């Protein structure tokens, strides 16, 4: 179990590191490197649109990797997803800017983002299943936390890397070439993750299903046919996680540095406080879900998000560093309360023969609704009306997630072989 937990954790940590360095770079420097002819706001929107492209590709990645994960096994597809994600991220660090190759630069950037999105679309479902299907029945929440902890650790590593590059190099060197270093480090990290993943055995639940010749011919179609409620409501439930995280990590970074004129290094340091809150809450609540159940905790997190969306921008607008840290920490606390139990909860909603496709596609469909759309919508609302209106949008999305989880069952005591 230690090896399984490590493999589940290390892969998601690396892949989320890859994704988050793009989100941080999108907020800080990519608009100048790839869209220099646009205004500040238009460049930010264009860069966030490339961010959204990766999310749009994730359900397709979940469908493709889920199909083979449910038919040939979890392990092999997780190796491929890791390679796709890591190599495409490293390639972004090598990609020439607009001044060097013109319009080909943003075109190639979008292409690499598509490959990133496809890889991550197949990653989470497999990593969560690897942990959940190996875990003892009474500790599925705890072991699923290994996959979930990849998110805060990956984000922490991404933020620290950017903070070091920005602090050591200065603004001119950082914006010129220093931002590329975190992307290039992905080549090293993917080699480490690959080494660990290749040593893990196939999951027992899949092996049992394979021995009974129970592999589905078209897993995603069967998941929609057998679990339509879980597919759609699961996507709605997880949406608030993406809304809270990517608004706090991407748009709030842009808003505080550009509009409030807070130095980039100060904001990166304040973000680290929020990431620590995310890590602690994710692990603690995931473990607690083995005791009191997943659903109650997710309901509490979504209800908290309804409230926090209304207060996050008033707190940011104070310009007070302590209150900014509270604003970001509250958003990521909401995420952690839901995200921790979700690692076990979403796989538990589906039967073994379609679990990779069902959990992965539902999770990534929520990513399109929350991660792709939220930063764009919040940015547009803030520019057209006020940042507070963007916060109300966050509250509305949290309310949607609350309604969805209220319509789903508790799963803590389910037998995974008999869903």
- Characterize the largest beta sheet: strand count, sense, and whether it forms a barrel: none
- Taken in chain order, the helices and strands follow as HHHHHHHHHHHHHHHHH
Average of pLDDT: 85
For the secondary structure, the number of strands is 0
Protein name: Putative proline/betaine transporter
Function: May be a proton symporter involved in the uptake of osmolytes such as proline and glycine betaine.
Membrane topology: Multi-pass membrane protein
Subcellular location: Cell membrane
Question: Can I get a quick summary?
Answer:
This protein has 419 residues and is mainly alpha-helical.
Structure notes:
The protein has 17 helices and no strands. The protein has a single domain, classed as Up-down Bundle (Growth Hormone, Chain: A), CATH 1.20.1250.20. Helix 6 packs across helix 15, helix 11 crosses helix 16 and helix 13 runs antiparallel to helix 14. The longest helix has 32 residues. The chain is mainly α and 419 residues long. It comes from Streptomyces nitrosporeus. Its main location: membrane. Keywords: Cell membrane, Membrane, Symport, Transmembrane, Transmembrane helix, Transport. This is Putative proline/betaine transporter. It is a multi-pass membrane protein.
């Amino acid at each position: 179990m230690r090896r399984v937990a490590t493999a589940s954790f290390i892969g998601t940590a690396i892949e989320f590191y890859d994704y988050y360095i793009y989100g941080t770079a999108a907020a800080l420097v990519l608009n100048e490197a790839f869209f220099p002819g646009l205004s500040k706001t238009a460049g930010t929107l264009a860069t966030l649109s490339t961010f959204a492209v990766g999310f749009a590709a994730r359900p397709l990645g979940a469908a493709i990797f889920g199909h083979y994960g449910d038919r040939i096994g979890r392990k092999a597809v997780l190796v491929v997803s890791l390679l796709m994600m890591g190599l495409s991220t490293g390639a972004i660090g090598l990609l020439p800017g607009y001044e060097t190759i013109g319009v080909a630069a943003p075109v190639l950037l979008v292409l690499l983002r598509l490959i990133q999105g496809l890889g991550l679309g197949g990653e989470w479902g497999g990593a969560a299943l690897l942990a959940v299907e190996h875990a003892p029945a009474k500790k599925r929440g705890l072991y699923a936390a290994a996959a979930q902890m990849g998110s805060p650790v990956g984000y922490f590593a991404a933020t620290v890397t950017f903070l070091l590059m920005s602090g050591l190099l200065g603004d001119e060197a950082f914006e010129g070439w220093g931002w590329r270093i975190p992307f290039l480090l992905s080549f090293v990290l993917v080699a480490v993750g690959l080494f660990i993943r290749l040593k893990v055995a196939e999951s027992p639940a899949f092996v049992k299903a394979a021995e009974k010749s129970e592999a589905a011919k078209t897993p995603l179609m069967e998941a929609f046919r057998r679990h339509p409620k879980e597919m759609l409501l699961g996507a709605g439930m997880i949406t608030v996680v993406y809304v809270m995280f990517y608004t706090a990590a991407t748009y709030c970074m842009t808003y505080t540095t550009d509009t409030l004129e807070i130095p980039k290094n100060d904001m990166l340091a304040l973000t680290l406080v929020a990431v620590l809150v995310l890590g602690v809450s994710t692990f603690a609540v995931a473990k607690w879900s083995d005791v009191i159940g997943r659903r109650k905790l997710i309901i509490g997190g979504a209800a908290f998000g309804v409230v926090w969306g209304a207060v996050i921008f008033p707190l940011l607008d104070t310009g007070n560093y302590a209150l900014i840290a509270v604003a970001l920490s509250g958003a990521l606390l909401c995420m952690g309360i839901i995200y921790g139990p979700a690692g076990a909860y979403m796989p538990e909603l589906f039967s073994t023969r379609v679990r990779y496709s069902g959990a992965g596609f539902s999770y990534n469909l929520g990513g399109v609704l929350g991660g792709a759309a939220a930063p764009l919508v919040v940015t547009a609302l803030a520019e057209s009306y006020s940042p507070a209106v963007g916060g109300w949008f966050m509250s509305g999305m949290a309310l949607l997630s609350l309604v969805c989880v209220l319509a789903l069952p508790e799963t803590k005591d389910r037998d995974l072989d008999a869903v």
